[in-house]
C-alpha cells in the first residue's frame, strides 16, 4: 500500500507569541517548534495502516528547514521516506498549500493520505480536504476511529453530540482527530535510523495568494473580574450576581 | 458597492440550526455595510418543508433549495456540489458557512471546487470601503489575524455563538429557487452510513449556551456527577480540560481548548480548572466566566468575571442546592 502522511512543524503550544514590528506577522525568533500534535496521530495511523496492509509510508512537508525537522520526527516514529517541498515563501494560505501538495501527491499512485485535523498555529483545518477535492478523491475529516482495508475504509468521525459512521472507497484522504490512536514515542534507535533515511528535496513555487493579511494583533483582553468570596458561603452572592448583574441565569 | 452574500445553513433532524440564523444576521450586516445587495440561504436537504419560510424570517431574501434523497445525512460531495451550484446561480460575492463539524468539513471542499479562499473560524467580519475583511484567532487565540480577500467568492467559516441572529420577522418573505444538482458517482464515494447520538440530554459543548467544565481538580471521573447535576439544572453542556480527558475521566469530544473545541457560550463555569493557556484559548470567548478553584493564584481567575476560591467538592454541592431551590 502506498501511504502518504502530510506533516508540519509548528510553534510549541506553550510558546509565547509576539506580534512582529510590522503588525502583520509573528515574531518567530524565540519560538520553539514541534511536530504538529495532530500530525502525530496522522503519522501513527499511517504506520498502523502499513503494519496491517503492508507497503511504504512517505512523509511530505512544505516549507523551510522546519519542514525537514517535521519529516525527521515522523521518520523517527517509523516513516520510511520523506519529500521536502522547499519554499522560501510564506506558506500560510490553505489553498496555496493544498494545490502544491496535490500536485506532488497527484501522480504518486497513492492509496491513503493522512493529515492532522489542523495545524496548531494557523489553525485553518483546511488543507487535507482541499487536497482531496483537487485530487477528486473522497476525504473524511476529524476521524476518531478508522479501519483501512485493501480497497475501502470505514470508521467514525465526531460531530456535535455524537458521531457519524462512514464508509469510503480508496484512494482517500483522512484527517486525524485526537484520540484516533496513541502515537508511539520515537525510540533512540528510531531517531538514529531516521538520520539515514532518504529525504527527497524539491524546490516549489506557490500560486498567487488569494488572501492578504491586513493586521495581526492581540485579542481584546478580558478585564479581571471579582472574587465573590470563599467556599460555599460565596454561593448566595454568586447566584445573585449571575441573575441580577450578568443576567445569565 | 452592492454585495451578494449567501449562507450555507445547517439542518439537523429537520430543524434549522441556530448557526444558520447567526450567519444570516452577519450576511444582512455585510449587505448593509456595502450599501446594497441580496442575502440568500442555501439548503441541502432531503425535503425543505417549512424551512424556506423560517429562513425568510431569519433574514434571507432568497432561498436556494437542493433536495435530494441522499441528503438526509451529511453527504460531503453532494453538499459541495449544491453550495457550488448555488454560488454560481446567485452570483455570490461571499459565502458564509458555520464552523460546526459539518461546516468545517464543507468549507475547504467548496474552496477547492470554486478556487476561492476561506477564512476559518472567523469571530469578526466587516465590509468597509468596498473591501471585505475577516478576523480569526490564531496561535491558540494568542493573536487575532485580520485578512482581506483578493478573489471571489470569499468564504467565511464563522465560529458559532459569536454573531448575532436577527429578531425573527415573520412578515418577511423570500423567493425560493430549486437547484438541480446532479450528483456524480464521485460525489457519493464517501457515505455516512449512520449517525449515533450519545445518550443523555446534555447539549454538545460547542453548541450549548451554558457550559460547565471540570479539570484536574475534579480528582476522578466519578466526581463529574456533581457537574452533571449542575449541567442538568442549567441546561448546560459538559466540558473538560485536557487534564481531565487525558486522565480518562471524560471523552475527547468534551475537551475544551487548543486541541479540543473552541466554545463561546453565554456562561462558562470552570470547576477545578487552573487555566493553562491552551484551555483559555478554547473558552476565553465566553460572555461570562465563573471560576471555582481552591488556588487563589490560579490563572483562571485572571479571565473569570466571578471567582469563588474554595474546594469544588464543597462549593459545587452548595451551588447545586441553591439552583435547585430556584427552579
Topology:
The complex is a heterodimer of chains A (249) and B (327).
Chain A: E1 2-6, E2 9-11, E3 18-19, E4 26-27, E5 33-35, H1 37-53, E6 56-63, H2 65-77, E7 81-86, H3 94-106, E8 112-116, H4 127-135, E9 139-148, E10 152-159, E11 162-169, E12 172-176, H5 188-196, E13 199-203, E14 211-217, E15 226-230, H6 235-245
Parallel strand pairs in A: 1-6, 1-8, 6-7, 7-13, 8-12, 9-12
Antiparallel strand pairs in A: 2-5, 3-4, 9-10, 10-11
Helix pairs in contact in A: 2-5, 3-4
Chain B: E1 5-8, E2 11-12, E3 15-16, H1 18-34, E4 39-45, H2 51-57, E5 62-67, H3 76-90, E6 94-98, H4 101-114, E7 118-122, E8 124-128, E9 131-138, E10 143-149, E11 154-158, E12 175-178, E13 190-197, E14 210-214, H5 225-234, E15 237-240, H6 242-246, E16 267-271, H7 277-283, E17 288-293, H8 300-303, E18 306-309, H9 312-326
Helix pairs in contact in B: 3-4, 5-9
Q: How would you sum up this structure, described in words?
A:
The complex is a heterodimer of chains A (249) and B (327). With 249 residues, chain A is of the alpha/beta class. Chain A has one domain (2-203): Rossmann fold, CATH 3.40.50. Chain A is 29% helix and 33% strand. Chain A has a nine-stranded mixed β-sheet with strand order 11-10-9-12-8-1-6-7-13, with helices on both faces. In chain A, strand 6 (56-63), helix 2 (65-77) and strand 7 (81-86) form a beta-alpha-beta unit. The N and C termini of chain A lie far apart (56 Å). With 327 residues, chain B is of the alpha/beta class. Chain B folds into two domains: 5-188, 3-Layer(aba) Sandwich (Rossmann fold); 210-326, TPP-binding domain (Rossmann fold, 3-Layer(aba) Sandwich), CATH 3.40.50. Chain B is 29% helix and 28% strand. Chain B contains nine helices and 18 strands. The longest helix of chain B has 17 residues, at 18-34. Chains A and B meet through helix 3, helix 4, strand 9, strand 10 and strand 11 of A and helix 3, helix 4, strand 7, strand 9 and strand 10 of B. Strand 11 of chain A pairs antiparallel with strand 13 of chain B, so a sheet runs across the interface.
Amino acid at each position: 500500500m502506498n501511504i502518504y502522511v502530510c506533516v508540519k512543524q509548528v510553534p510549541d503550544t506553550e510558546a509565547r507569541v509576539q506580534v512582529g514590528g510590522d503588525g502583520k506577522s509573528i515574531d518567530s525568533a524565540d519560538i520553539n517548534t514541534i511536530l504538529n500534535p495532530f500530525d502525530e496521530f496522522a503519522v501513527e495511523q499511517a504506520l498502523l495502516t502499513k503494519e496491517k496492509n503492508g507497503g511504504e509510508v512517505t512523509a511530505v512537508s512544505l516549507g523551510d528547514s522546519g519542514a525537514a525537522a517535521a519529516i525527521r520526527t515522523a521518520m523517527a516514529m517509523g516513516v520510511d521516506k520523506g519529500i521536502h517541498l522547499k519554499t522560501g515563501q510564506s506558506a500560510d494560505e490553505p489553498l496555496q498549500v493544498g494545490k502544491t501538495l496535490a500536485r506532488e501527491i497527484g501522480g504518486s499512485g497513492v492509496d491513503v493520505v493522512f493529515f492532522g485535523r489542523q495545524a496548531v498555529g494557523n489553525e485553518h483545518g483546511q488543507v487535507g480536504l482541499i487536497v482531496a477535492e483537487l485530487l477528486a478523491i473522497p476525504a473524511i475529516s476529524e476521524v476518531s476511529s478508522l479501519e483501512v482495508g485493501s480497497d475501502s475504509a470505514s470508521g467514525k468521525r465526531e460531530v456535535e453530540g455524537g458521531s457519524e459512521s462512514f464508509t469510503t472507497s480508496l484512494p482517500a484522504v483522512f484527517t486525524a482527530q485526537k484520540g484516533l490512536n496513541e502515537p508511539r514515542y520515537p525510540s533512540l534507535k528510531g531517531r538514529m535510523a531516521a538520520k539515514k533515511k532518504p529525504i527527497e528535496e524539491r524546490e516549489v513555487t506557490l500560486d498567487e495568494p488569494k488572501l492578504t493579511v491586513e493586521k495581526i494583533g492581540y485579542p481584546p483582553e478580558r478585564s479581571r473580574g471579582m472574587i465573590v468570596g470563599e467556599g460555599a458561603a460565596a454561593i448566595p452572592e454568586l447566584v445573585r450576581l449571575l441573575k441580577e448583574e450578568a443576567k445569565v441565569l | 458597492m452592492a454585495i451578494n452574500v449567501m449562507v450555507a445553513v445547517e439542518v439537523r433532524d429537520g430543524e434549522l440550526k441556530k448557526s444558520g440564523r447567526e450567519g444570516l444576521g452577519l450576511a444582512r450586516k455585510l449587505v448593509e455595510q456595502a450599501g446594497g445587495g441580496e442575502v440568500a440561504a442555501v439548503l441541502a436537504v432531503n425535503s425543505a418543508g417549512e424551512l424556506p419560510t423560517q429562513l425568510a424570517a431569519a433574514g434571507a431574501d432568497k432561498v436556494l433549495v437542493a433536495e435530494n434523497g441522499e441528503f438526509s445525512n451529511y453527504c460531503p460531495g453532494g453538499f459541495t456540489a449544491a453550495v457550488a451550484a448555488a454560488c454560481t446561480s446567485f452570483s455570490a460575492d461571499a459565502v458564509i458557512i458555520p464552523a460546526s463539524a459539518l461546516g468545517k468539513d464543507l468549507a475547504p471542499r467548496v474552496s477547492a471546487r470554486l478556487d476561492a479562499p476561506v477564512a476559518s473560524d472567523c469571530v469578526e467580519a466587516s465590509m468597509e470601503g468596498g473591501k471585505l475583511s475577516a478576523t480569526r484567532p490564531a496561535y491558540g487565540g494568542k493573536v487575532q489575524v485580520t485578512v482581506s480577500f483578493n478573489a471571489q467568492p470569499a468564504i467565511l467559516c464563522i465560529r458559532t455563538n459569536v454573531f448575532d441572529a436577527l429578531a425573527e420577522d415573520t412578515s418577511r418573505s423570500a423567493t425560493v429557487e430549486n437547484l438541480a444538482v446532479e450528483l456524480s458517482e464521485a460525489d457519493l464515494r464517501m457515505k455516512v452510513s449512520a449517525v449515533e447520538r450519545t445518550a443523555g440530554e446534555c447539549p454538545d459543548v460547542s453548541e450549548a449556551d451554558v457550559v460547565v467544565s471540570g479539570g484536574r481538580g475534579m480528582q476522578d471521573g466519578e466526581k463529574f456527577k456533581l457537574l452533571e447535576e449542575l449541567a442538568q439544572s442549567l441546561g448546560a453542556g459538559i466540558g473538560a480540560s485536557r487534564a481531565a480527558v487525558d486522565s480518562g475521566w471524560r471523552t475527547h469530544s468534551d475537551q475544551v481548548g487548543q486541541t479540543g473545541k473552541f466554545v463561546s457560550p453565554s456562561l462558562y463555569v470552570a470547576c477545578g480548572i487552573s487555566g493553562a493557556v491552551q484551555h483559555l484559548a478554547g473558552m476565553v470567548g465566553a460572555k461570562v466566566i465563573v471560576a471555582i478553584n481552591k488556588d487563589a493564584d490560579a490563572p483562571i481567575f485572571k479571565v473569570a468575571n466571578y471567582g469563588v476560591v474554595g474546594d469544588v467538592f464543597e462549593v459545587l454541592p452548595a451551588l447545586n442546592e441553591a439552583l435547585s431551590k430556584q427552579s
